[in-house]
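Q: Got a minute? One more chain.
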Amino acid sequence: MSVYGPKINLPKVELPETNIDPKIIWGIVLLVVLLVLFFVVVPVIGQMMNPPIRVSWTNNPLNLKEKPTEPAELNLTLINNTDEMITLNLEVTTPSNEILVFCPYVLFENVESGKERQVKCLIRRNPDSLIFAGTYDLKIKTNLGETNTTLQVVTK
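A: Always. Here it is, folded:
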């Protein structure tokens, strides 16, 4: 008698003899795994290469010493990368009270698949708050995804 109970004599299962080299079998298994990974990874890479939000800036860094009243412009391109017509919602926020964000358009109705909408947001310093030189974070959020960007402020 063993420590774990009586020994069980199971029948041995043997595969029929084949004259196939094990290297070929492993090669086929590796090929199947690579194909599965390819079909899983390629759509993810495609979405990374074609993000739903493209960001560009005008007047960044914001130089408040030379031009204290000129705003920075956040140029956004929103792309419908789904397969259906949707309504795009836009929200640009910042945790900082030192800057103000104004986007004139935040709702884009009936955007067809593959089409894009462009919007220009103005970023100004808050006149009711003291602003310091540095980097200010902005979060851009739509119903298709979100991204982050930064505004550099120069005061000296």
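A: The chain is about 20% helix and 40% strand.
Q: Perfect, thanks.
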